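This part of the workshop introduces the protein records we will be handling. To make this concrete, we reproduce a full record directly below:
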Amino acid sequence: MKFDVKNKTVLVTGANRGIGKVILEEALSRGAVKVYAAVRKLESAQPLVAEHGDRVVPVRIDLDDPSSITAAAQQASDVDVVVNNAGVLKQSAAVDADAIESLQFEMNANVYGLMRVAQAFAPVLAANGGGALVQLNSVASVKTFAEMATYCASKAASYSITQGLRDSLKANGTAVVSVHPGPIQTDMGQEAGFGDSAASPSLVAQSIFDALAAGEFHAWPDPMAEQIGAAYESFAKNVVEADMQESLS
């Protein structure tokens, strides 16, 4: 399903910095009439309001607080596009002493958070004609890096849920996009040690709205992501995006 963000209302989680902030700005530049800046602390969105005026509306969403998500869905009842960008990263290998705790922390935000957002906003999107749900996954969804194995596991799980959402929400006319960046220049990227070779967040933002406009499920924004996406393309098209219900019955 193709979707044009022009004259639409968008919500972006984690919108106060990093990739989320650039997604918000890209949405406005492409003609979105309003963007809900979903943040844990409302005051963190004030610089965005100061810059963009009433086209930016702060709303509280804390992925650790399910009630904040349901409240946000009630407040943003006019939303057409939900971009679930917020997530967490721990540097834990599977054999590290803190690996289980790290995975629990990452699963709560990266997987359960996505599910809570989808459950809260799917009815809103359906009521507004369908719209779109965008999930920030990662190249780590399809490739595990040993030093951050728990993060990769959480992103593989969120990618699996995103695939399920694509099929579940199709009946409501809701487009779903799964975004798979490689190393990106953000605070999280710096903490992970990605260094100067990391790509610009603007590539991620552009790829989201390009994928929506083209009706694509997968978005591979940056050079590393493009390389992995090219190798993965056949499986993605012939298995992930294929209707296999008939062959499984």
